[in-house]
């Protein structure tokens, strides 16, 4: 076709040029203002890309994947040039990466599209990334300012202590859910990144927790909202938490100099209190009522934490006591008390008195008179009406020889005692009728034994 000595004319359009000395060429096309950390080898990244030949023919695009391309950098998962070209990128940065063929797919090309030896251009936009290497810290790479990935949840949790420990119950609140979500940390109830990220949180702390996918929902993602290999960002407001092994915390605010008697289990007490949530929201107060609150310590009337808090107190002593929910109203809460609430009580002990044994309305502190009936029949007419009985009992109390049941109206108690002794209900106690409770109990036991 070509005769000798012919001059050749080529009409050339250069489509590609490369040299073995070529290196990966990168050019930043846009970069966010802030860049806390750049991609480094062994990072996991998610990025968008368009891959073209040098003439602009697109051969691949993450957009055809309907998602990001997710992979590790510098670990041999990518073509060499890509491993190299991604290093140093900021999140949100767009970069043009030109990769010579020997650092790309080589002379064989790749797939049906690129059958020639050609250079590749990748237009990369990093979506997010993280590194799971402990040496690099657990921190995610961070998120670009203008990420399309919105926080998937807001958590609110409460704490009263310096930091939760494994097994603590956290109160998590999705703002969109508008109620608290209670869970344990460090026990596998929540994604492990959250388990880790919540450690050491303080009361009132607001914390952003960024969780890489291997500590969240992995490559699969979950539901419609969390795509595969997603890095999650949580804005957490720490409100309160507690641990089932926690007990109450007592701060003594004021204590009288002399204290002859401190409260103990079984005592009848009167106390004033304010009860608030940890954030100061007032729930209840005895100051809203006519008089102080009363209780028998060790009974079932008050919550366990308050019962403990009121023991060992002197009259006039003031305390602030923090009660975790398992010693309060529990995970369910109670009327006016939210579930899993940590309660703060301001307490003042007003009165303490040893209570009587169960079933007793009056006990002798001194020895009872040898002939009780004669002693009680003050006018010696052989019978004891209520007035006489009442005068006798009140005299014993005044002279500190005996005590009536505390916390009840004395006249009512005396009337009840009289009613018990006036067995035929004729308004008088006779010698036959009068029996001490101890004798009665002894008789009862005898009957049972018979
Ligand atoms: Ca009499
Ligand atoms: Ca009688």
From TrEMBL:
Primary enzyme class: isomerase
Reaction catalysed by this enzyme: [protein]-peptidylproline (omega=180) = [protein]-peptidylproline (omega=0)
Residues of the PPIase FKBP-type domain: 42-109, 161-242, 266-353
Keyword Amino-acid biosynthesis: no
Basic and acidic residues composition-biased segments: 422-450
E.C. no: 5.2.1.8
Any GO molecular function: peptidyl-prolyl cis-trans isomerase activity
One Gene Ontology cellular component: endoplasmic reticulum
Ranges where the EF-hand domain occurs: 364-399, 409-444
Keywords, comma-separated and alphabetical: Calcium, Isomerase, Metal-binding, Repeat, Rotamase
InterPro entries the UniProt entry points to: EF-hand-dom_pair (IPR011992), EF_Hand_1_Ca_BS (IPR018247), EF_hand_dom (IPR002048), FKBP-like_isomerase (IPR051989), PPIase_dom_sf (IPR046357), PPIase_FKBP_dom (IPR001179)
Location of region: Disordered: 401-450
Designated name of the protein: peptidylprolyl isomerase
Gene label: FKBP10
């Amino acid at each position: 076709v070509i005769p000798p000595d012919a001059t050749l004319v080529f009409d050339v359009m250069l489509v590609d040029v490369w040299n073995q000395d070529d290196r990966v060429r990168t050019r930043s096309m846009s970069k966010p203002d802030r860049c806390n950390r750049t991609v480094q080898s062994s990072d996991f990244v998610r990025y968008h890309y368009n891959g073209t030949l040098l003439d602009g023919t697109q051969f691949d695009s993450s957009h055809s994947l309907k998602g990001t391309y997710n992979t590790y950098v510098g670990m041999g998962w990518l073509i060499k040039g890509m491993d190299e070209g991604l290093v140093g990128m900021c999140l949100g940065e767009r970069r043009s990466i030109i990769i010579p063929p020997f650092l790309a797919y080589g002379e064989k090309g790749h797939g049906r599209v690129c059958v020639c030896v050609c250079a590749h251009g990748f237009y990369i936009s990093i979506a997010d990334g993280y590194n799971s290497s402990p040496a690099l810290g657990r921190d995610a790479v961070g998120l670009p300012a203008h990420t399309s990935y919105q926080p998937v949840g807001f958590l609110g949790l409460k704490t009263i202590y310096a930091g939760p420990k494994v097994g603590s119950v956290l109160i998590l609140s999705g703002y969109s859910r508008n109620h608290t979500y209670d869970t344990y940390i460090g026990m596998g109830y929540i994604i492990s990144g959250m388990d880790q990220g919540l450690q050491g949180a303080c009361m009132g702390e607001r914390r952003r927790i960024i969780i890489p996918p291997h500590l969240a929902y992995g490559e699969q993602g979950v539901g419609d909202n969390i795509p595969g290999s997603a890095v999650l960002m949580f804005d957490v407001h720490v409100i309160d938490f507690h641990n089932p092994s926690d007990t109450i915390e007592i701060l003594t605010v004021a204590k009288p100099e002399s204290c002859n008697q401190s409260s103990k289990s079984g005592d009848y007490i009167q106390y004033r209190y304010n009860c608030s949530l940890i954030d100061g929201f007032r729930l209840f107060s005895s100051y809203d009522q006519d008089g102080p609150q009363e209780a028998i310590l060790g009974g079932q009337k008050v919550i366990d934490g308050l019962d403990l808090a009121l023991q060992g107190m002197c009259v006039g002593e003031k305390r602030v006591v923090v009660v975790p929910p398992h010693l309060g109203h529990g995970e369910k809460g109670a009327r006016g008390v939210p579930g899993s609430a940590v309660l703060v009580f301001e307490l003042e002990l007003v009165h303490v008195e040893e209570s009587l044994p169960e079933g007793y309305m009056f006990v002798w502190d001194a020895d009872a008179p040898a002939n009780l009936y004669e002693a009680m029949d003050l006018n010696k007419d052989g019978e004891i009406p209520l007035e006489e009985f009442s005068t006798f009992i009140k005299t014993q109390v005044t002279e500190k020889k005996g005590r009536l049941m505390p916390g009840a109206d004395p006249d009512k108690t005396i009337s009840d005692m009289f009613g018990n002794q006036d067995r035929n209900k004729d308004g008088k106690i006779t010698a036959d009728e009068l029996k001490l409770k101890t004798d009665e109990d002894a008789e009862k036991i005898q009957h049972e034994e018979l």
